[in-house]
Amino acid sequence: MVWWRVQVPDSMTLRELHGVIQVAMGWEGIHLFQFTPRAKRFGSLELAARSSDVPLSELRLRQGTRFRYEYDLNGPWEHEVRLEMRHEADPGMTDLRKNGMKPALIVDHLVGAYCPLVANDGSLSDQQKADRVRRFARQVTGLAYGQSGQEELDVLVDVPLMPALLGQVDQVAGRAGMSRDAWIEQAIKQSLTVP
Predict the structure, then answer these.
(1) Which of 24, 83, 144, 175 is the most exposed place for a label (fewest CB within 10 A)?
(2) Residues of the signal sequence (predicted)?
C-alpha cells in the first residue's frame, strides 16, 4: 500500500481536504467524491451526500480514527483516511503572525528566500526546480494561512495501485534488485527530497 501524509489545520473542511488530496495525488478534481466518517456521507451534492463544507474539528475525530474517501466513483478509487496525530500549530508561524506579519507577506518572504536555493542547484532540471518551488509554496501557504492557536492534524491517505501499475513497479523494482515496498518508499523519498 502506498500512502501520503499531509498536515492540515483542524479548521479545514472536508471539501478543502478533498482539494489537498487532489493536489497531493496530482489529480484534477473533475470527478465526484465522498467521505464516509461514522457511516455519514459527505461529498458531491450530485450523490445526495451531505455538504462537505464541514470542518474536521466538528467531526470530533480521535487519534487513529479511520474513514473512507472515494473519488471517481465510476472507478472507483477508494482510499482510507486516518487521523494519525493532533498537535499544536507550528510555533514559528504562530510567532510571525503574533508579531503582526500578514500571511501573504510570510509566504512571499519564505518563497523568495527559497527560490535562489533551488535556482542554484545545478543537479535539477528547470521542471524539477519549478515543481520544488510549487510544492514548497503550497506547504508554506497552508502553514501561513492556518489559524493561530489551532491544532494541526496529521492525516494519512492510503492509495491503492491498479494491477497494471503494480506490475510495472514490480518490474522496475526487480531490475533494481529491490522489493516492491522498498522501491516505492525510495521513489517517494526521492520525489519529496527538498534541498
Answers:
(1) 175
(2) none
Residue showing cell 471517481 = 72
Using alpha carbons, select from 104, 67, 98, 62 the residue that is nearest to residue 82: 67
Does the reported pTM lie above 0.70?
Answer: no
Total number of domains in the chain: 2
Domain that holds residue 77: 1-88+150-180
Q: Could you tell me the three cell numbers for 118?
A: 533551488
Q: Exposed, middle or buried, 172 (CB in 10 Å: 0-12/13-18/19+)?
A: middle
- Spell out the per-residue pLDDT of the chain, length 195, in tens: 567 777 777 777 888 888 878 877 767 778 889 999 988 999 988 888 899 989 888 998 888 888 999 888 787 788 888 888 776 666 666 677 777 777 777 777 777 777 777 677 777 788 888 887 787 777 777 777 665 555 556 566 666 666 676 778 788 889 999 887 777 777 766 655 544
**Given its phi and psi angles, is residue 98 left (phi above 0), alpha (psi -120 to 50 degrees) or beta?**
alpha
Do 114 and 23 share a structural domain? no
| Cα–Cα distances in angstroms (integers) from residue 195 to residues 59, 106, 131, in the given order | 37, 20, 13
Judge whether 122 lies within some domain. Answer: yes
CA distance 183 to 41: 35
